[in-house]
Design brief:
about 300 residues, alpha/beta, six-stranded mixed beta sheet, about 15% helix, globular, zinc
């Protein structure tokens, strides 16, 4: 029997240019990083499902919180001219054709315009709703979060990863449960066929999700999102950038630095050793060099 594997198509969306010091420990004074904020279309042929993974930057920035609009002036050059909806249209796919939208986390450059996806079921990590409502304590308070970002009647918030009960089904309709795929600690087999996994990826922000997709008999694609923002960090050439917050504490872009280092170690191991002997390509959402090198694979093409 011939197996038809899912496809992963990068979507050409917006870009931003933050201070390099927010990401790279050895950044030069005044240096900026112009980086894409890629999203991806995953198509699962067996179920005929279309999944949008991440929503990139919102096209209409004027609908964002006024304070956030002011903050975005520190991210120029910035573009939202192309968004997920326009990228899908390049392959004659409408936003209403999308079955699932996976919200990897709720930072502004990943949440796009959820209201475009009128038929989709949204999937978000544990505590996403509390984050949006600023109920996670002062260290996670963000005045720019939108309480009503996601449609309450069409959003599945994943449960916390298990302690000793790995393998317990939490969604009987879909047969979903957390399982380990060494070295990945917690993942959900989205279609119960070993081809598309939602991966718990702790460190950056509570509920941060990655994805692992089997695109061929001898290839996996791992979508790492903000587990790592630059390949120089991934290669071990520099460390995460840090700065002092308003309380004088040294902080990084990651809310749980120890967990971020552990997740980074998992990504490096996957890239180095593969998964069960099958090569894994790790893709970083903000990797401009990867975007340029893989331009021919963007939707309506695929990796």
């Amino acid at each position: 029997m011939t197996v038809t594997y899912p496809t992963v198509s990068p979507l050409s969306c917006g870009y931003l240019s933050p201070p390099a010091s927010k990401f790279l420990a050895d950044a030069l004074e005044g240096e900026r990083l112009t980086m894409p904020s890629m999203a991806f279309l995953i198509q699962h042929p067996a179920s005929k499902s279309k999944i949008v993974f991440d929503l990139s930057i919102r096209k209409d920035l004027t609908t964002l919180h006024p304070g956030l609009q002011a903050h975005l002036k520190t991210r120029i050059p910035l573009s939202s001219e192309n968004d997920v909806k326009s990228a899908l249209a390049l392959g004659n796919v409408e936003a209403s054709d999308i079955d699932y939208v996976i919200i990897t986390h709720v930072h502004w450059d990943h949440t796009g315009t959820p209201s475009d996806f009128t038929s989709a079921t949204f999937i978000a990590g544990h505590n996403t709703d509390k984050l949006l409502k600023n109920e996670m304590g002062p260290d996670l308070y963000n005045p720019f979060f939108e309480r009503d970002l996601l449609p309450a009647d069409r959003t599945i918030e994943l449960p916390p990863v298990p302690g000793s009960k790995n393998g317990e089904v939490f969604d009987k309709t879909r047969g979903w449960y957390w399982q380990s795929l060494s070295p990945i600690h917690n993942a959900i087999d989205m279609f119960n066929d070993g081809t598309v996994y939602i991966v718990d990826s702790p460190g950056h922000l509570p509920g941060h999700l990655n994805a692992l997709v089997r695109v061929a008999v001898h290839k996996w694609i791992y979508l790492a999102v903000d587990a790592c923002h630059h390949m120089r960090i991934f290669r071990g050439e520099t460390d995460f950038g840090s700065w002092k917050d308003e309380k004088g504490r040294t902080v990084t872009i990651h809310k749980d630095l120890d967990a971020a280092y552990e997740t980074l170690g998992v990504l490096r191991k996957l890239q180095r050793e593969g998964l069960n002997g099958i090569p894994v390509e790790v893709v970083l959402t903000h990797d401009g060099e990867w975007e340029k090198a893989n331009g021919d694979h963007f939707f309506p093409s695929h990796l």
